[in-house]
Backbone:
């Protein structure tokens, strides 16, 4: 079931008495995404609370803890390996928990050529992932079939599944893929949800 | 109204300029002489010698092919026991439209032979899978790609394309872009054949046999392999492999591109050791053109080939250990691998798949610090290799998981057409770099590592030692230094003239134009050339009709026969054993499915 965008003015985090949620400048000690610029006036007196909206916290957490499912079929998968391993180290951005089970992942990275024979498999795995889910098409092949304009190659995975980020390159460099993950993170934190 | 026609609007419809010369290989006299000797030794009437080829070549009568293959296999002195290749070529204008080509290798005499059978459309051929087990899958591929049927084949169904595919893609009249969609309903269920020793006479009601499907998307199947196993308790009693999940139509794509344009496609066959495929392809075309890359280019080719071989083994060992739960080695080994990739990037600008070679040499010269960087990597690598070896080789858990697992006997390995580390792990010292040296490998001091046993442990041993031998070659190559001179041949029919000349000389401008418009045009003929890839013999068989597009490019995939034997190797073992064995075979889907 698709998750709706949560839009509630009621924060679960206790606020300073007298200021209704959404009214006046919200004050906290830590700036969370979505919180307006802070104004730590004297009246706070060392208060230790913070305010934000639930969906913003959730999105912030989501964006920083993506669990990728590498749907690696070809050469791009090797560059995906480079990105997770020691030199580039994607764990700096919280996306190192690679899961091969679609039930435990929320980001599918399609790394490699998708041919007609494997297309139904890709679709099945995408369907098995719980919402919210995101898809990165890594490389020219996943994006458009690449230079395989041929009788057995899917001409871009958007024939089969919706895509959030496209990474150019054949193969894209690990930093290129990393950039896409960071961009996706921004997108998630903004609360944009694509309907698949 | 004016009746003048704008001249430039009339399209040119005449024949494309082609090369009409006939290719005569330099090896032809020797091959012809050897062919006569083989003919005399066999004493069979079904053979006709085809002269002027790069290998001893015979045309065989359609009805006699099994007898001929058996005779070559069983002959006391010839001993063509290793099946290397089986593929077809389509000539739609001929009455007998197909050539089915067999290539065999004799380990005893270090020689190759080629057999051709001519078939008309609709004619069938007897299956040779009884003589060479490897040919089971090769014949399925021919059936899939050309629609040639093999009588008596145990399992003649499509292998690379999917179940809903119509037509036969490598026939010349098949449109390269014609796709067919596979729907969920179209996917066929696979029922593995139970190995004979496990066939039950009557149904045992206590234990039900279950069928377990691994892949195609499974952490251990590295890409796109699918293995269907039938389990009796924990024992695998039958297994069947399905491939084709990465069939990217390499061979058809080559036919629609020019010779230089095929180079990036070859990178993507075995993408773990891309440069080696480049070398194989470029040297095949160079062989047809009769040109040799300059010494400097050859030296760089050798250095990069060896680095990529090490990188290939690193990926194989690293991921195989990950499958067995040893993650540290993967992180640790990927560090030097990153350096190797960076070296290639400094040469060509691309990381994993550099496409750095050109027919006739290299794309550009290497950077000035190339050798210094190479030396640095050679210095740092032994430590990583030693560390990982020390971590795993004395580890009881590791040893228990690999020793005696995934065994293949020497006879089976040969009969299945194994090459490379997997063959050497059964004690056969066959390495193309020794048996048919190229790039000057014969001038280096190094050994071919072999191990006994043919199990997963033996394959580990061979790969570790091979990395050390590659380092030995590299050290010598670095010590010799780079020969001075250009990196591209000085031949206007192969290499573009330098830009300065194009701007200032009429001749060069014309050559430039000719090469861009009409491409490289090898003489009419066919050639086969092989190099030692990360997984075994990588060979290219190219047919030229004199135009700028190859008429047929066939790549010999070393993984293909190795994976074919996999179901036999794991029968009688457990799933964890199967996983450990699979990683050690280093199946690269790009090359398996092409
Ligand atoms: S985009 Fe390039 S590198 Fe990636 S899978 Fe396709 S061919 Fe391979």
Residues:
């Amino acid at each position: 079931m698709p998750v709706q965008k949560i839009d509630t003015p009621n924060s679960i985090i206790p606020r300073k008495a007298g200021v209704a949620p959404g009214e006046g400048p919200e004050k906290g000690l830590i700036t969370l995404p979505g919180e307006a610029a802070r104004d730590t006036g004297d009246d706070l007196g060392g208060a230790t609370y913070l305010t934000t909206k639930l969906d913003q916290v959730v999105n912030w957490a989501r964006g920083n803890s993506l669990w990728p499912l590498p749907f690696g079929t070809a050469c791009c998968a090797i560059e995906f390996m480079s990105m997770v391993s020691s030199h580039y180290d994607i764990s700096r951005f919280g996306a190192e928990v690679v899961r091969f089970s679609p039930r435990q992942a929320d980001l599918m990275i399609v790394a490699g050529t998708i041919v007609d024979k494997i297309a139904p498999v890709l679709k099945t795995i995408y369907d098995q992932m719980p919402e919210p889910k995101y898809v990165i098409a890594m490389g020219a092949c996943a994006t458009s079939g690449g230079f395989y304009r041929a009788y057995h190659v899917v001409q871009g995975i958007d024939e089969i599944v919706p895509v959030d980020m496209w990474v150019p390159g054949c193969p894209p460099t690990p930093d290129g893929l990393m950039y896409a993950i960071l961009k996706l993170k921004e997108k998630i934190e903004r609360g944009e949800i694509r309907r698949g | 109204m004016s009746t003048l026609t704008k001249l430039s609007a009339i399209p040119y419809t005449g024949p494309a300029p082609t090369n009409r010369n006939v290719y005569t290989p330099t090896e032809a006299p020797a091959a012809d002489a050897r062919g006569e000797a083989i003919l005399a030794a066999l004493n069979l009437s079904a053979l006709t010698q085809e002269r002027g080829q790069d290998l001893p070549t015979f045309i065989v009568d359609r009805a006699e092919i099994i007898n001929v293959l058996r005779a070559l296999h069983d002959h006391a002195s010839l001993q063509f026991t290793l099946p290397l290749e089986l593929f077809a070529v389509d000539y739609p204008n001929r009455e007998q439209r197909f050539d089915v080509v067999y290539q065999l290798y004799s380990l005893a005499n270090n020689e190759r032979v080629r057999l051709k059978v001519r078939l008309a459309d609709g004619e069938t051929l007897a299956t040779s899978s009884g003589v060479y087990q490897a040919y089971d899958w090769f014949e399925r591929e021919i059936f899939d790609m050309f629609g040639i049927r093999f009588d008596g084949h145990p399992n003649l169904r499509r292998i690379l394309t999917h179940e809903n595919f119509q037509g036969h893609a490598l026939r010349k009249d098949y449109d390269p872009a014609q796709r067919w969609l596979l729907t969920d309903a179209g996917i066929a269920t696979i029922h593995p054949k139970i190995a004979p020793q496990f066939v039950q006479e009557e149904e045992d009601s206590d234990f039900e046999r279950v069928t377990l499907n691994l892949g195609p998307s499974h952490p251990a199947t590295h890409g796109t392999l699918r293995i269907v196993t039938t389990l009796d308790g924990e024992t695998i009693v039958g297994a069947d492999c399905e491939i084709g999940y990465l069939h990217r139509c390499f061979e058809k794509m080559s036919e629609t591109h020019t010779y230089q344009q095929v180079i990036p496609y070859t990178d993507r066959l075995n993408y773990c050791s891309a440069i080696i495929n480049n070398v194989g392809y470029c040297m095949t075309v160079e062989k047809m053109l009769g040109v040799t890359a300059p010494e400097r280019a050859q030296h760089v080719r050798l250095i990069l080939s060896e680095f990529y071989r090490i990188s290939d083994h690193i990926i194989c060992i690293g991921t195989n250990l990950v499958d067995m739960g040893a993650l540290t080695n993967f992180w640790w080994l990927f560090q030097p691998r990153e350096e190797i990739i960076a070296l290639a990037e400094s040469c060509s600008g691309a990381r994993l798949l550099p496409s750095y070679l050109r027919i006739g040499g290299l794309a550009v010269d290497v950077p000035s610090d190339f050798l210094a960087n190479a030396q640095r990597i050679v210095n740092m690598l032994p430590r990583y290799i030693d560390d990982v070896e020390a971590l795993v080789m004395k580890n009881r858990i590791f040893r228990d998981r690999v020793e005696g697992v995934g065994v293949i006997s020497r006879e089976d390995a040969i009969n299945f057409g194994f090459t490379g580390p997997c063959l050497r792990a059964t004690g056969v010292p066959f390495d193309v770099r020794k048996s048919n040296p190229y790039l000057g490998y014969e001038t280096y001091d190094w050994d071919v590592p072999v191990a006994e046993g043919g199990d997963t442990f033996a394959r580990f041993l061979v790969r570790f030692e091979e990395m050390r031998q590659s380092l030995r070659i590299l050290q010598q190559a670095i010590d010799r230094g780079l020969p001075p001179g250009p990196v591209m041949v000085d031949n206007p029919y192969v290499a573009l003239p330098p830009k300065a000349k194009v701007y200032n000389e009429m001749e060069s401008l014309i050559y430039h134009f000719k090469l861009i418009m009409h491409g490289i045009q090898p003489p009419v003929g066919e050639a086969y050339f092989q190099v030692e890839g990360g997984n075994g013999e990588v060979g290219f068989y190219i047919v030229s009709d004199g135009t700028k597009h190859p008429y047929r490019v066939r790549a010999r995939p070393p993984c293909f026969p190795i994976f074919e034997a996999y179901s036999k190797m794991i029968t009688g073992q457990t799933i964890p054993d199967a996983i450990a064995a699979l990683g050690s075979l280093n199946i690269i889907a790009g090359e398996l499915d092409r």
Remarks:
- The mean pLDDT of chain B is 86.
- The longest helix of chain B spans residues 295-323.
- Chain B touches chain A through 52 residues (CB under 8 Å).
- Chain B has 20 helices and 15 strands.
